[in-house]
Amino acid sequence: MFDYKLLAALAAVVEQAGFERAAQVLGLSQSAVSQRVKLLEARVGQPVLVRATPPTPTEVGRRLLNHVQQVRLLERDLQGQVPGLNDNSTPERLRVALNADSLATWWAGAVGQFCADKHLLLELVVEDQDVGLKRMRAGDVAGCVCATDRPVAGARSVALGAMRYRALASPAFIRRHFSRGVSAEGLIKAPAIVFGPDDFLQHRYLAAQGVEGGFLHHLCPSSEGFLRMAQAGLGWGLVPEQQVINELASGELVELRPQQPIDVPLYWHHWRNGGELLNQLTDHLLGTAPACLIAP
């Protein structure tokens, strides 16, 4: 039988990115949390954590975390079925990974009513849409929004729609770098804005324009900061269409190549045995996301 106090310690260390914060969440000393993780490792006969900064789960650790996530959700179902177990004082908290652009645009509107109706608290983990699925593999989220349609083992994926991105820059930036029009040579020399090292959207856009290889770029891991940098003329970048409706209408930002957007499909991944709450959230997203996104 599993000792769920030991599993809770493992989950807290991974979710809180360290032993100290895990101890605060669990109401224990840091030493006690460490001892529980060590005892768990003794029980399974191998390490469950890589002691790094932050700590990361080993392969067996990921399997245990997946189990913990699913047990938490199934316990919620059982509390609803057995009145004596129901504790209405503590709302359910669901960890979900999604890309920053979804968080900055459509996500809140799509899930707001559901969270209110279900008394659900969200703990959002922001990852690029191309790599968010690694959180599912690591077992530290119950669901994720990403650009990959193939689910990890034990999970399902459903298509939500697509986000449309447009290559934009300020008028001053365009005058400075593209006075003779947008060309492949100009795109290489003009600094771009990239969300982070895992963001390859600009690379795909440049490849479609016949540009291969490296290019000058800023790194800005913030959707709001990304937009502000483009407005300030620091570079050009691919921005969600939903985020810049007013800026495009006013001429504050201008599209580099009109009628050549990039559509990024988005998929919702969730555990097969994640309980009724995840199933209900999936049904809700399938009903609300199409109004927020475009057909892929």
TrEMBL record:
Gene giving rise to this polypeptide: argP
HAMAP family reported in the protein's UniProt record: HTH_type_ArgP (MF_00513)
Statement: the UniProt record of this protein carries the keyword Transcription regulation: yes
Positions of the HTH lysR-type domain: 2-58
Alphabetized SUPFAM superfamilies for the sequence: Periplasmic binding protein-like II, Winged helix' DNA-binding domain
InterPro entries named in the record: ArgP, ArgP_gammaproteobact, LTTR, LysR_HTH_N, LysR_subst-bd, WH-like_DNA-bd_sf, WH_DNA-bd_sf
Name of the protein: HTH-type transcriptional regulator ArgP
Similarity-based family: Belongs to the LysR transcriptional regulatory family.
Organism in which the protein naturally occurs: Pseudomonas segetis
Classification lineage: Bacteria, Pseudomonadati, Pseudomonadota, Gammaproteobacteria, Pseudomonadales
Entry function: Controls the transcription of genes involved in arginine and lysine metabolism.
Pfam families named in the record: HTH_1, LysR_substrate
